Amino acid sequence: MKQIFALTALSIVTALGSGAALAHHSFSAEYDNEKPITLTGKLTEMKWSNPHGWIYIDVTDADGTVTNWALETSAANGLIRRGWRKEDLPVGTVLLVEGWQARNGSPTGNIRSVTFEDGRRLFAGTSNQNVQEEK
Is residue 99 assigned to a domain? Predict the structure, then answer.
């Protein structure tokens, strides 16, 4: 009976843990180090999640077209350690974002930093191994 319980418990733990491992990816699998982006836009949403947080901003092009960009950061606890606070990111906050675009050309990116209108800069903990991350 103990063996059946142990095998069942092990199976459940393995099944639950495998989803997160499969969902995680390397920078180079999804983003292009040769496609740096610098975007300015208004925050529409901030997802404080793991294994990555996400910032969504509306960027207005020169012709007036608005594109909502999805921008990956490090995990929520990593952002907090770098000085990020939920109260600093209300919807409508204007951000300048630096990072790299997705390989598929979609409005998706992995970000290195955000700069607020007052000049304050926060680092996002990029997974780009070609960059020495500032603290």
Answer: yes
